[in-house]
Amino acid sequence: MVFFILCAVWMSILLTGCSLIESKVALIDKADFERTIDGRSTSIYTLKAGEITMQVTNYGARVVALWTPDRYGRLSDIAIGYDNIDRYINNTGERFLGAAVGPVANRIAEGRFTLDGVEYHLPQNDNGQTLHGGILGVDRIVWDVKEYDGRQILFTTTLPDGQDGFGGNRTIDMLYRLTDDNCFEVEYWGTTDKATVMNLSHHSFFNLAGEGCGTILDHQLTINSSAISAIDERMIPTGEKMSVEGTPFDFREPHTIGSRIDDVGCQQLRLGYGYDHNWIIDREDNGEVVQFARLYEPESGRVLEVWSDQVAMQFYAGNFFDGSYAGKYERPILYRGAVVFESQGYPDAPNHDNFPSVRLDVGETYRHKCIYKFMTQN
Questions:
Q1: How many domains does the chain have?
Q2: What CA–CA distance (Å, rounded) separates 133 from 9?
Q3: Which member of 202, 342, 352, 368 is catalytic?
Q4: pLDDT at position 329 over 60
Q5: Per-residue b/e over 4-31, b at no fewer than 16 CB within 10 Å?
Q6: DSSP string spanning 236-297?
Q7: Known active-site residue 233
């Protein structure tokens, strides 16, 4: 009987390709990320603290791999990414894997907004809208590495006036830090020499079972939010603050992601092709870091908590993955095979006077902190 049980277990592992039971982290070769792009050198950097090991590249400040233990101490890479930089540069799949996004994350309607009487026109790179900054954004540039010590890395860049249509010479510093209590912390600071808009975010895709290990539909999610920003057919906020009460968007108590994602009676789900909306976080307006969300994967016992000082969070459930390309381990990234939690200001904020402002003036400093905290649950 024991023999047949063991055979069944190993057959399951072979069929899914998702064993990833490792005694140590399998690091990506540095040589696979050493290139020169527009005269600037790229590489990959390894960070380690607590029980977490993370690899990042300065091309788009991308998280390439993130290894965490399950409830039994077995390691898996839970971040979706590629195994060499050429796949990021010549990407035919998901452009924003693991990247910093901005200078204005999320969507801007019809690629335009007005600031101080000046109308700005941006590249329309998403069905007539501007998504995550346009053609270059901050994900298709090579960031300078200002400091690196094995536990944290400080990136910096200067975006010239007019890049992707935005105004101002903007300097951005961004810190990735791992901590002894298994946190991945992201901090941003931004300044400008001309009035502009800024709303940076982070775009790691997570599957707590491991990269390419099925879908995230059985992950249990909690979001500290009583309302979302309703969207139209362009996935642009209408300006309405829609209560989650009695809808599939109510995650104030834990629900599996898949339990209501295909509710055909919910117009907002049809418009977003599933969950791809801005949740307005229930919080005091004091700028403190508070818990936004909690994600639990029952098979591995892994838990991810999201904390931030921002006012909102985009939750995206991988609705546009289709299994046509694979990640680092040659396993297809399936439809709804990973999730993103983007702490942020509201999408399309420059076009809505009733939304919290994302304006940045000369002499001010844009600040933003987000913490991804990893743990396990029995």
A1: 1
A2: 46
A3: 342
A4: yes
A5: eeeeeeeeeeeeeebebeeeebeebeee
A6: -EEEEEEE-TTSTT--SS-EEGGGTTT-TT-HHHHHHTSSEEEEEE---SS---EEEEEEE-
A7: no
377 token code pair: 């649950």
Encode burial over 107-136: b for 16+ CB neighbours within 10 A, e otherwise.
Answer: bbbbbbbebeeeebebebbbeebbbbbbee
State which amino acid sits at residue 201. Answer: S
* pLDDT per residue as tens digits for the range 84-143: 999 999 987 799 999 999 999 999 999 999 999 999 999 999 999 999 999 999 999 999
The answer to whether 167 and 115 are in contact (CB under 8 A) is: yes
The CATH number linked to 56 is 2.70.98.10
| Closest C-alpha to 211, from 310, 97, 110, 315 | 97
Q: What is residue 286's predicted lDDT score, i.e. its pLDDT?
A: 77
Marked catalytic residue, from 132, 202, 203, 352: 203
| Tokens, residue 178 | 């791992």
Residue 274 carries which side chain, given as an amino acid letter?
G
- The question of whether 203 is a catalytic residue gets the answer yes
| Structural domain range at position 31 | 1-378
Location of structure tokens 């709804």: 336
**363 C-beta neighbours (distance < 10 Å), count:** 8
- Model confidence at 22, pLDDT cuts 50, 70, 90, reads low
3-state secondary structure of 28: coil
